[in-house]
Amino acid sequence: ITLASIAGASAVILLGARLNLYPQLKKILLYVALPCALIAIFYLLRVETHYLGDGLLRAKELEVGIWWLPTEPLAQFANYIVFRVTSVLFGFSGTTAIETVSCIGGLLYYFGLLYFVRTICRDTSAQLLIFVLLYFSGMTVLFCGYAETYMLLPGLMAIFFASGVKAANGQSSP
To answer: Which of 15, 89, 119, 128 is 20 to 30 A away from residue 5, measured at CA?
Structure first.
């Protein structure tokens, strides 16, 4: 898996910068095709054993109706909303709903990193390198259906950092 990841990342970095596509095709690839491929990867590589008890505890709390936790308000509320919708529509359990939020967190991180790399540099090769290094780090396992409560944080942090860089450069207000 490590060798395949390195080979894939190298191909993206070396070929991606030289890829000349029509702007519309590039947008479809970047904003539709790649996110769909990521969802497929997250689903196919989903975690089958959840080692930490917090995520499973949170899933049981969702099932009994607990939507507010003062220590993890965003994650618990997001998990609760997804659980309420998916349990009615698809019969999802609390764990399956959290796994769904995990995959959504991967998409949030993808789009957050796109915003971040475009904010910090203009060179396409540098953007690709930074994106690949950050996206395919160890935290990517959080997006493979891992039942925990911090899978939205990487995406929100990428957006926060990009916004901070823009504010520091005078491109937006603090």
So the answer is: 119
C-alpha neighbours within 13 Å on the C-beta side of residue 95:
12
Rounded to the nearest 10 degrees, the angle between the axes of helix 94-120 and helix 124-135 is 150
Q: What is the pTM of this model?
A: 0.85
Beta carbons of 143 and 42 less than 8 angstroms apart: yes
pLDDT, tens digit, for every residue of 37-85?
A: 889 988 888 887 766 667 788 888 999 998 988 888 888 899 999 999 9
At residue 62, what is the residue type?
L
**Residues 59/147, Cβ–Cβ less than 8 Å:** yes
Contacts of 138 (CB under 8 A, 6+ apart): none
Tens digits of per-residue pLDDT, 79-115? 999 999 999 999 999 989 999 999 999 999 999 999 9
Both tokens of 102, joined, read: 């995990």
Residue pair 114/159 in contact by the 8 Å Cβ criterion? no
Q: What single-letter DSSP state applies at residue 33?
A: I
The DSSP symbol for 31 reads I
Pair of tokens at residue 83: 């659980």
Which helix (H) or strand (E) segment holds residue 102: the answer is: helix 94-120
Q: Where are the beta strands (DSSP E) in the chain?
A: none
